[in-house]
Amino acid sequence: DAKTTQPNSMESNEEEPVHLPCNHSTISGTDYIHWYRQLPSQGPEYVIHGLTSNVNNRMASLAIAEDRKSSTLILHRATLRDAAVYYCILRDSGTASKLTFGTGTRLQVTL
Amino acid sequence: NAGVTQTPKFQVLKTGQSMTLQCAQDMNHEYMSWYRQDPGMGLRLIHYSVGAGITDQGEVPNGYNVSRSTTEDFPLRLLSAAPSQTSVYFCASSYEDDTEAFFGQGTRLTVV
What we know:
heterodimer, A: mainly beta, 9 strands, 0% helix, globular, B: mainly beta, four-stranded antiparallel sheet
């Protein structure tokens, strides 16, 4: 499976935008880029996913580099409730519920 | 809509005991899977299923069995619990293989 590299931790002030980077230099053409987050003592929660084009939903935006070797999850206005571990995951089409989690980025949000 | 329901939420076992972790989903999802999460680590895939009657091994299947007799249920069996199986276990389901996965709240298992 192609691997991803994320910073171990990041900090943000509340109400500020947050850009969470992910490197995936060995991504294949059929790999989707998925982001999940895990709040304390909870199961992971889907955030967003994309293949080539940038994507937006009610939770976040996903910016994908033109060569697809990196991507950035953008939280437009961080709140205290966004404090969580964020996982960037490559998921090949046809791999069912086979998500390969790394250690993710722990996001701290402060007042 | 309950989503993915895991029971029990907490369990303490003695070494050598067996037990079944239950997972049920009410979204008619074909794909289900089990993960374990050790402290400070990401989730690791134990077993998964692409539909009733079909299961396959993930990254860390040893010591665990699964079966999928219905679309709704995907139980995980620990045959002879070991302290190394102390972990938090998560069940997930998804409608298709490239759609979002829904996770349960987890079962925290301690083996003493």
